[in-house]
């Protein structure tokens, strides 16, 4: 049987495509190994409920916990002035959240509620009591879930540039293919890690806009680690599930009576402050809201002094509950 010219062309294209994917897969495996073996920032590990959790443990005193957002790692906070300043008077714990950096993430659906339960158990393993919890972006959902689950186990929350209510997000659509069982697995192990490396610079500019990307962040943050297939799966799963996660917890915000300090950038290009942080402020009975003009999604890099002051306010409180129920809004120029 003679093969027609179009059929031959299709077969050749298919073979080339398979070859490219196989070559990409081999390259990605090598790059993953290299990234994990050369990561500069290394802390300690604790085993909790079947997961290996990687963290930095600095300083002594009352505990402050720092949780990074989606797609990130402990280098995010470690590259700010926060850690050194806080560690001079607090015990500071910085985690690689499960599925990110060197921390593992179990199989099955992963939710902020599940992560909050794991974090609560991790506190017990580390002998941590009544910490101030500082959470950025996606991790604010974890912090709020923990506040509902164990309100007496926290001193209070500092929430930075979070996503709290189900609104349309372009990245949910963009991340959907990577979260699918079959095609997602192929993409994550071939082309996506390479694309992630190429797009890292523009992604950082969007995160920090309208400010410049700090040199120390560029130097410390490991793009190769953030571009590994396992981390890209966590990114995709957390992004796609984000609207439903926010919807599930948002109906319970009025039940959170812990003191909560909310910080947002007025020019955040990732989440809309008026739809998220301002609305959360109206929903929480014991909250303050600081909106920073000329600041984007990475407020903790731009104004670490504010975050430190808010931590100090919460840590100095004898009770985890504010007096009264009124909330207030503050703006800083």
TrEMBL record:
**Membrane keyword on record:** yes
Question: Which InterPro entries is this protein grouped with?
Answer: AB_hydrolase_1, AB_hydrolase_fold, Epox_hydrolase-like
Which molecular function GO terms apply here?
Answer: catalytic activity
**Protein name according to UniProt:** Pimeloyl-ACP methyl ester carboxylesterase
Bilayer-spanning residue ranges = 12-31
Q: Which Pfam family, an example, fits this chain? A: Abhydrolase_6
Q: Which residues form the AB hydrolase-1 domain?
A: 64-309
Q: Which UniProt keywords apply?
A: Membrane, Transmembrane, Transmembrane helix
């Amino acid at each position: 049987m003679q093969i027609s010219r179009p059929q031959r062309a299709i077969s050749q294209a298919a073979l080339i495509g398979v070859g490219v994917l196989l070559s990409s897969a081999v390259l990605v495996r090598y790059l993953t190994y290299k990234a994990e073996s050369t990561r500069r920032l290394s802390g300690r590990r604790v085993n909790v409920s079947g997961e290996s959790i990687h963290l930095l443990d600095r300083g002594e005193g009352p505990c402050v916990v720092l949780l990074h957002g989606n797609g990130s790692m402990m280098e995010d906070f470690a590259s700010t002035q926060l850690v050194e300043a806080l560690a001079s008077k607090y015990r500071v714990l910085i985690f690689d959240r499960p599925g990110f950096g060197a921390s593992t993430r179990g199989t099955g659906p992963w939710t902020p509620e599940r992560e909050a339960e794991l974090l609560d158990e991790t506190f017990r393993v580390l002998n941590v009591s009544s910490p101030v919890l500082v959470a950025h972006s996606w991790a604010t959902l974890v912090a709020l879930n923990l506040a509902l689950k164990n309100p007496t186990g926290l001193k209070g929350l500092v929430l930075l540039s979070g996503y709290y209510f189900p609104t349309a997000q372009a990245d949910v659509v963009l991340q959907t293919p990577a979260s699918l069982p079959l095609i997602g697995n192929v993409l994550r192990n071939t082309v996506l890690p390479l694309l992630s490396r190429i797009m890292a610079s523009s992604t950082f500019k969007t995160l920090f806009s309208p400010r410049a990307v700090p040199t120390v962040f560029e130097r410390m943050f490991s793009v190769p680690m953030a571009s590994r297939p396992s981390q890209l799966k966590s990114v995709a799963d957390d992004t796609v599930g984000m609207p439903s996660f926010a919807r599930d917890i948002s109906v319970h915000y009025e039940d959170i009576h812990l003191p909560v300090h909310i910080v947002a950038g007025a020019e955040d290009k990732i989440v809309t402050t008026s739809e998220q942080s301002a609305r959360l402020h109206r929903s929480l009975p014991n909250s303050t809201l600081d909106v920073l003009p000329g600041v984007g999604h990475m407020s903790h890099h731009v104004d670490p002094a504010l975050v430190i002051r808010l931590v100090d306010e919460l840590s100095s409180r004898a009770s985890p509950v504010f007096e009264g129920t009124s909330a207030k809004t503050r703006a800083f120029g």
